[in-house]
């Protein structure tokens, strides 16, 4: 067999780090080299390829068109090599950093992450809760959980939960108006964060118009976690994603009066760089979280069906989706 023609590994390694950081200096810091040494190694690679891989500017370098095509394949090759090495050693180790949206972290991941940690004790799992989008090329982040629509260029994505929505409130608050039998009953109560377009979408689907001018002014609370806490405290009705509040619903802290949900296409996604799809720790986390969510979904669907059977006996006029 004819041996493959390969470039110098040191040069390829310098290119991969520089393309990921967008900086020769930061690549050198990662590799324990000087900025000049990184530049020299990349020049060797460019001479072998026959074309520049970076556009060099003061304090900044950017990939050329050839560099943009080359970088993902190089990153993937290093991830495959790392995966093969880890498999040969029979273990995963090091820090595994998850950047996650606050709502998902608070209402799902924080309660479940210990199960993943127990499966992989040699990993040091670290959560970073933020609404800011993680920058994989400059931050020490392995995977991120984002709320949004996607896609995001250069990132693999897996839908974790669809962020559909429906009104929820405290059972005690519902009792103050004699219970919630129809959507109109909700209008007898304060509606939290009425400026959120989810309210208009949900009520418009059943031909009900909300006139915000006729309703008292209320503080804007922001994210779902804050709204849910306010709803549990009896401050008003919140428009929430049921999958994020299954525990509160089952505990009776929140009441979901109607089965009908609406959606604007928003979801919570697991994302990571395309070139790192084969990293052992990313693959392990991806498989774990997708399986855990699927098992939980099946379990809660069974419980929900039992609850709806009981509710239909009390409420013979359920709200259905308009067709």
From TrEMBL:
<feature type="domain" description="HTH lysR-type">
    <location>
        <begin position="7"/>
        <end position="64"/>
    </location>
</feature>
<dbReference type="InterPro" id="IPR000847">
    <property type="entry name" value="LysR_HTH_N"/>
</dbReference>
<keyword id="KW-0238">DNA-binding</keyword>
<dbReference type="InterPro" id="IPR036388">
    <property type="entry name" value="WH-like_DNA-bd_sf"/>
</dbReference>
<comment type="similarity">
    <text>Belongs to the LysR transcriptional regulatory family.</text>
</comment>
<dbReference type="Pfam" id="PF03466">
    <property type="entry name" value="LysR_substrate"/>
</dbReference>
<dbReference type="InterPro" id="IPR058163">
    <property type="entry name" value="LysR-type_TF_proteobact-type"/>
</dbReference>
<dbReference type="InterPro" id="IPR005119">
    <property type="entry name" value="LysR_subst-bd"/>
</dbReference>
<feature type="compositionally biased region" description="Polar residues">
    <location>
        <begin position="310"/>
        <end position="323"/>
    </location>
</feature>
<keyword id="KW-0805">Transcription regulation</keyword>
<protein>
    <submittedName>
        <fullName>LysR substrate-binding domain-containing protein</fullName>
    </submittedName>
</protein>
<feature type="region of interest" description="Disordered">
    <location>
        <begin position="301"/>
        <end position="323"/>
    </location>
</feature>
<dbReference type="Pfam" id="PF00126">
    <property type="entry name" value="HTH_1"/>
</dbReference>
<dbReference type="InterPro" id="IPR036390">
    <property type="entry name" value="WH_DNA-bd_sf"/>
</dbReference>
<keyword id="KW-0804">Transcription</keyword>
